[in-house]
Each structure stands twice: as C-alpha cells, then as structure tokens.
Write a structure and sequence with these properties.
Elements: E1 2-7, H1 17-22, E2 25-30, H2 33-42, E3 47-51, H3 69-78, E4 83-88, H4 93-102, E5 107-110, H5 115-122
Parallel strand pairs: 1-2, 1-3, 3-4, 4-5
Helix pairs in contact: 2-3
Length: 123
C-alpha cells in the first residue's frame, strides 16, 4: 500500500480521500507545514499532495518563493524518494516554475483539479 501525505492549508484543497482509498493509497492529512515536516522525519511518504501559495510578501526578505520551500528543502534530507504533486491556482501557476527550478516536482495541477488529472499524476 502506498503512503500519501495531504497537506491541506486552505479550503481550496479538494478532498480526494475516496479516490485514494479506491487506488489503495493510505492517506495521512495535516493542516500545516510544521506537521508535514514532522511526518517526513518519522514516516516518509511515497507521495505528497500540497497546495502552492506564492509569497507575495513574506518575513524571509524574499528568500522563499512560496509556502512550500522549507518543506521541499526538508524533503531532500528526510525523504528524497517522495514524489510531490502541487495544486495551484491559475493566477499563481507562473511562479511554480521558479520553485521547480530549485526543487523536483512530480506534477503540477491547476485548479479546478479533477480526479482524472490526479489519478494520472499518481500513476
């Protein structure tokens, strides 16, 4: 059984729990990057589904591109084999390319995300 970590930081994140069960994927859900990084250290997942939010103004003096930077850096140390599927709003899609130049991303899906699109990305 594959293990998947859903990082749900907003109401936009679709609930694909039924799809994961049909595909025999065990899902763990967290609501913050801090909790996600904790799981990466103890129970590395094979797949991660997370939302991208561009850091228009952040407290890091422009060092971080998005909400995913710290988690993706941790991923390289604790779970480099994990594949990351990013969900993003159409208006922020252009910024994901900057992030993917720094960190490997398995797939990028633009909202609204369909079961069909996610199933293809999970394969």
């Amino acid at each position: 059984m594959k293990r998947l970590l859903s990082i749900i930081e907003s109401p936009l994140h679709p609930d694909f729990s039924a799809l994961y069960r049909r595909l025999n994927i065990e899902e763990a859900r967290v609501s913050s990057m801090r909790k996600a990084i904790s799981i990466l250290k103890t129970e590395p997942p094979g797949l991660i589904v997370c939302e991208f939010f561009y850091g228009y103004s952040n407290n890091y003096a422009g060092v971080n591109i998005s909400n995913l930077d710290v988690m993706l850096a941790s991923l390289q140390k604790y779970s480099p084999q994990s594949r990351v599927i990013v969900l993003v709003d159409k208006s922020e899609r252009q910024y994901v390319d900057t992030l993917s130049a720094l960190f490997p991303l398995h797939a990028v899906l633009v909202y609204p995300v369909t079961e069909q699109a996610l199933t293809a990305a999970l394969s």
